[in-house]
Design goal:
alpha/beta, Na+/H+ antiporter like fold, Alpha-Beta Plaits, six-stranded parallel β-sheet, 29 helices, 10 strands, about 65% helix
């Protein structure tokens, strides 16, 4: 019955995965960390519930293939070009220096350069899955440090591909000539280029034919075939499965079927990824961990400090403030999931001995486990360090009075600035992105480079004499900190805050926010306004309802059980009559008809009481009056009759 052991192991893994997902969601921790812990507990070095891990590792390889495939689907050349600075500069320097510096340090300890480079590659990667999940839950993906972090993570994911390619070169016989290295390297890239060219021509055509069949099962099976087929082809040519999966994803990202492919693969990816992270936990030797706890703790601290400090320096060189640099550095302080894949691949090329592998594995897992805690403390650490750092502003003293301060020059900030400029209202923008500052100043914008959480920056922007401050940034911790400083310096200033989630409203009110614009509820207001307009509610009544909800800080929408009486008077409006207007387009079916031919009243119970034609109004039109293109008909009746009249005029009856 040994052949059925794999089924038992999968059942155990999935049985453990379900409560872990639930538990870690409750305590706001990524489920990935739970999978790692679960693997440690049920593995051969824990309670020995799962002992044979070879088959599990094979399934985990499928998880890696699916993970790289979905990352490839997200790598769209158009989206990458928008963040090229973060990708090329931040990501490039981070990966390169994370490989070079450790390699040179290991060389001092008599570790061969090839192994030192390999260890540097392992350290250079961070966890895309964990970091993006936490940043997304904290609504910080669009913040300055969130965008930089995302750019670096994308570069790291892309860098995995050449790392896989050079592994055979690092692990080859040291006596090989330079020429042999170069031949192997160019053969690998040549094979890769050939696969890309063939796949680019074949894959879209195959997917088109599969979609043309309109059989979902065929599309799903065909997608998996293309994915695994490309992965196996790269493996057969001496490369890794993961490279082929990534290539397949990148090629399909440009196709019209990418979203459908993602929806088909995503469930499989989630299942196999849980198996992958559990399999990593299975490999951790708990007895070795206990015996070498001091050494592992030192390695964990060294990795976190090294990666954080390196990223901090790079971000500061790019002229971003201390706070952004600290938050980005701490977000990328862990070792990533692809490092485990590289490590296992490196074992086959003898780049990692068993003892060193155990140290790396334990240290990496603990850096991942500590990530949620580090990111929880990151804002506090960033605030402390930014207070120590000097504040840099322009030398010319700014003088403002009775103006608007705009925090952030994204889409909302730019739109507000354009309106204020047209209205002749003085404003000043505080922005962290140096490129945005440079671009804005070329267009004549009044901008200050600085961190909104620094009191000196707000004072420089004239917070004491400003009338309004608008927080148009996607960074809740910075918003709260800056709001507190702004109100302490100018209690009478009107503070308008943009937020995404409802649970932040009460805290922002306590901090002194005068107007809070939660995106969730503003969307709700737009939806119900459009619905009421469709039922021909008078505009003033709709605006009154919107005003009531906003004035009460959306309290009616925030309650799960809203009192029916809050909107009871709307029923009376529905029962009452109304007057509305209908515009006659050039292609309207009824153009040229008389009102007698239209016979609107007998068919709908609604009455045309006037016709507006150009600058002239025809009051109480007769049955002989005709309907002409460009007319506006003034119609009165009940809500139901006006609806019927509109349908008749639209030609739907």
């Amino acid at each position: 019955m040994n052949q059925f052991t794999i089924i038992k192991d999968i059942v155990l893994i999935l049985l453990v995965s379900l409560p872990i997902i639930f538990l870690f969601r409750k305590i706001n921790l990524p489920s990935i960390t739970g999978f790692l812990i679960a693997g440690m507990l049920i593995g051969p070095y824990g309670f020995h519930i799962i002992s044979d891990i070879e088959v599990i590792q094979t399934m985990a390889e499928v998880g890696v293939i699916l993970l790289l495939f979905t990352i490839g689907l997200e790598v769209n050349p158009g989206s990458l070009s928008k963040m090229k600075k973060f990708l090329l500069y931040s990501g490039g320097f981070q990966v390169a220096l994370s490989v070079i510096i450790p390699a040179l340090i290991f060389l001092l300890f008599k570790i061969p350069l090839s192994k030192g480079i390999f260890l540097g590659m392992l350290i250079s990667l961070s966890s895309t899955a964990i970091v993006l999940k936490i940043l997304s839950e904290k609504d910080q993906v669009d913040s300055p440090h969130g965008r930089i972090t995302l750019g670096i993570l994308v570069f790291q994911d892309l860098a995995v591909v050449p790392m896989f390619i050079i592994l055979p070169l690092l692990g080859s016989d040291q006596a090989s000539s330079t020429f042999t290295y170069l031949v192997q390297f160019f053969l690998a890239f040549g094979a890769l280029a050939l696969i890309i060219i063939i796949s680019r021509f074949i894959m879209p055509k195959v997917l088109y034919q599969l979609a043309h069949l309109r059989i979902r099962e065929a599309f799903t099976i065909g997608t998996v075939l293309l994915l695994l087929g490309t992965a196996y082809l790269t493996h057969a040519l001496g490369l890794s499965f993961a490279i082929g999966a990534f290539i397949a994803g990148v090629i399909l990202s440009d196709s019209d079927f990418s979203h459908q492919v993602t929806s088909e693969i995503l469930p499989l990816k989630d299942i196999f990824n849980s198996i992958f992270f559990v399999s990593i936990g299975l490999l951790l030797n708990l007895s070795f961990l206990i015996e070498s706890f001091t050494l592992i703790a030192l390695v964990v601290i060294s990795i976190i400090l090294f990666k954080s400090f390196l990223v901090f320096i790079i971000i500061r060189i790019l002229h971003y403030p201390v706070r952004t640099a600290v938050l980005t550095g701490l977000a990328l302080a862990q070792v990533g999931e692809f490092s485990f894949v590289l490590a296992q691949e490196g074992m086959t090329y003898h780049l990692l001995e068993s003892n060193l592998y155990n140290i790396f594995l334990a240290s990496s897992i603990f850096t991942m486990l500590l990530t949620p805690l580090i990111l929880q403390l990151a804002p506090l650490i960033a605030n402390k360090l930014s207070k120590i750092a000097p504040v840099f502003t322009e030398t010319k003293k700014a003088k403002f009075n009775d103006h608007v301060i705009i925090a952030g020059f994204g889409l909302n900030g730019r739109n507000l600035a354009r309106v204020l400029k047209e209205a002749g209202i003085l404003y000043v923008v505080i922005e962290l992105n140096p490129d945005t500052i440079k671009e804005g100043k070329l267009k004549g914008e009044n901008m200050i480079y600085g961190d909104i959480t620094k009191e000196e920056i707000l004072l420089y922007a004239g917070i004491k004499t400003a009338r309004v401050i608008v927080f148009a940034i996607s960074d809740p911790p910075s918003t709260k900190s800056a709001l507190k400083i702004a109100k302490s310096n100018n209690p009478s200033i009107k503070a308008i805050v943009r937020t995404r989630y409802i649970d932040e409203i009460d805290e922002l009110i306590l901090l002194g926010a005068d107007e809070i614009i939660p995106e969730e509820f503003e969307t709700s207001l737009q939806i119900f306004s459009k619905v009421l307009q469709k039922y021909h509610f008078p505009l003033n009544i709709i605006m009154q309802q919107v005003s009531i909800l906003r004035s009460e800080s959306y309290s009616l929408l925030r309650k799960e059980k809203t009192e029916v009486s809050s909107f009871s008077h709307l029923d009376e409006i529905l029962a009452a009559g109304l007057t509305s207007t209908y515009y006659i387009n050039e292609d309207n079916y009824h153009t040229g008809q008389t009102l007698a031919q239209l016979n609107l009243r007998s068919q709908t119970d609604a009455t045309i009481i006037a016709i507006v034609r150009g600058n002239r109004t025809i009051s109480t039109p007769s049955a002989k009056d005709t309907i002409e293109s460009g007319d506006t008909l003034v119609i009165t009746g009940t809500h139901k009759s006006v609806d019927l009249a509109f349908s008749l005029l639209d030609g739907k009856q």
